[in-house]
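ok trying this again, last paste got cut off
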Amino acid sequence: MAIATLEAGAIALRANAQAKPTPPVPRARALLLQQSGRAGDLGDAKRSPPPTSKSNIAQASDESQTQSEETMNPPEEVDPDFIVSPRIVPNDRVPPLLTILPLNGVAISHLTEWELAPRYLFGDRLTDYFTVEALYAIDSDVRQALTRDNVFISDQRGEYLQMGTVSGSRQVVLRQEEPVTLEGIHIQQSFTGTCRAVNKLVTDIEEQCTFTPALVVDPESIDPDFLFPARIEQPGSLGDVISPETLEILRLPGFQNEGVNGEVVGLDLLFPNVGALPNPEQTGAVDRREQNDVLPSLTFSRVRQVVKANHESAELGRTIHGFTGIFGDREFGLNSAVQGAAQALPDFVPDLKGSDEPTNPNVNKTLFISANNTRLPAESFTAYHGGIGRAKHQLPGERVPPAQFHGVWLGLSPVTERSLIRTSQFAN
């Protein structure tokens, strides 16, 4: 990528080098004017003053007037460390590739002013909710300079305000109806006879005893969802003597198992669900309902990206400081303390050495690709992100050299707690 401002500066330097020797102050001023694209003559000694009236003012005609003009336009101070001291460059003179970077999932550059992305979700079986993603550039500029040892510097700074939403909770209820045929068992049985076979303690051969234990399913204990009993009572045991009155009740038509004085004889076991078979004669149904709860968030970020280039390589330093407030955050105190401490962390500024060789303006574009492709946690908010990238310039006829970017990230990431509840219910 060719940096247009640097090329213009190099042209100005070469033009000044071929002209007559001039003092260093006008030379630096000419370079600044050429790089920033401001109107005006870049010449040093051949510059002609603008006319003030119909009659031209003669040169060196009045000392007092000359002193007054020098007082109104004092000479600019020259920084001994810079050929071109740092100054703000117009946006149209800076290539976007030099300033593009990701900020909380949004790609920004020095040309970004604002972005707005509202979204409204609705549906028959969905809780309607509104979300908005917005970004506003509070301040943004790019300062460029050229040092005495031929190092080009581009210092991008900006302050941004972002508004968005985060997921507070999400509940999905899926109801599936499947037609089946249930199979059940109901056992009602009583078996009585002479006590000599089951109770040796009874000597009267006329006495009647039960040949089965008394087992009864409690109807109130049958689960309404699974249709299975949870409690089986045993009011009597094998070999209990049956009174004559109870025997008369047992002989009545139908199944009888309760006699006088609380006597219970035989088995009364009900199992409504012992298995299910598909029922192809009926059709099923599926119903899905979703409910979402979103929380608004507000983020303030300070961005700085410094690019330095010399005759053989370029380095990139990126630093992002951010503070995010989430309304309804259960960990607001801890998150605020961590983000507040992150604001004191230093900026990443590359330390690239210069040389006597002229600066190569063709910065390797893979340097920016490697920095922008750094893996950051998804759907997260940056409290501090910084790193340094390096790449050599591409020489004519050679392959593009690789680039490296090493950084650190600190921020807020969502913690998702998932729970699955599955229930089955049989309905008639």
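PB: full thing came through this time. Residues 137 and 160 are 5 Å apart (CA to CA).
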